[in-house]
Amino acid sequence: MSTERPQARQDRAVRTRQAVLEAAALVFEERGYEAAKLSDIVSLARVTKGALYFHFGSKEELAQAVMETEPDLGPAYVPQEFRVQEFVDVGMVFSHRLRRDVLLRGRARLALERGGRGLDRAAPYRDWIDLHTGLLAGAKARGELLAHVDPAQSARTVVGSFTGLHIMAQTLGLDLEREVSAFYSSVVPSLVLPAVAVRLDTAPGRGARALHGPDGADGADRSGEVAGAGASEGADGARSCGCGADLPVSQAGE
Q1: Angstrom distances, CA of residue 103 to CA of 28, 65, 193, 201, 217
Q2: How far apart are CA 42 and CA 185, in angstroms?
Q3: Helices (H), 113-251
Q4: How much is the pLDDT for 123?
Q5: What count of other Cβ atoms lies within 10 Å of the Cβ of residue 18?
Q6: Quick one: what percent of the chain has pLDDT higher than 90?
Q7: Whether 159 contacts 206, CB under 8 Å
Q8: Counting Cβ atoms within 10 Å, is residue 126 exposed (0-12), middle (13-18) or buried (19+)?
């Protein structure tokens, strides 16, 4: 009979769920939805298959959870003098974080794929469009935009363009942050009053500067590591992706 305290059991369940989500994100990112195997995910997360099924009933349910999980990375942008700088920063910050957080990359890969017909891929796009529309509407109300600009249409154009840039950068092995910087440098003059446009920062590295100040220092990096839920206390549970490798498996269920 287990003598584990309810709070300890609950904390362990939270750690297990997070480990499974991060492992799944890494496997989905590297292999795509169709090729991803639950056996690889449980090995990477260092949990049993029973523990995975305690939290997620199927691969599709797990993939949907990855798409819906918001990494604890802080705001999408930091308040700035101009709303249009905040609008630019959303994309620059996101492209900066994509290089550093496995959950974001897993979500992005799943959103771009067609596998898993039951997955709701529209929500991330709607959320991004709404965020951009709100920022552009605020910028227009403050007189920062050219008179002809339609915030909703411009938001859809920018989100669609960012998606295309992301795919192209992945395919060709390009630096997404530099590609996004070049995109904003090109598009800003068609949206923003010249007197405002010249005061905006769209240069490479803007994402890090917006988050961490002029030097862009940031000590956190979750680019390719997953904390195993079964690691003993005080042990280093980091696991780089060795999908399919014979890793130790935790016997702690949920």
Answers
A1: 10, 10, 36, 27, 21
A2: 43
A3: 122-141, 151-172, 176-191, 194-197, 206-212
A4: 78
A5: 18
A6: 44
A7: no
A8: exposed
The residue assigned the tokens 């795919």 is 167
Question: Whole-model pTM above 0.85?
Answer: no
* Residues 179, 108 contacting (CB under 8 angstroms): no
Long-range contacts of 182-189 (CB under 8 A, 24+ apart): 183/91, 184/88, 184/91, 184/92, 187/158, 187/161, 188/84, 188/88
Tens of pLDDT, residue by residue over 81-136, are: 999 999 999 999 989 988 877 877 787 788 777 666 667 778 778 888 999 999 99
- Within a 13 Å sphere around the CA of 208, how many CA atoms are in the beta-carbon half? 16
The confidence score (pLDDT) of residue 31 equals: 86
The three-state secondary structure class of 192 is: strand
- Has residue 253 got a pLDDT over 60? no
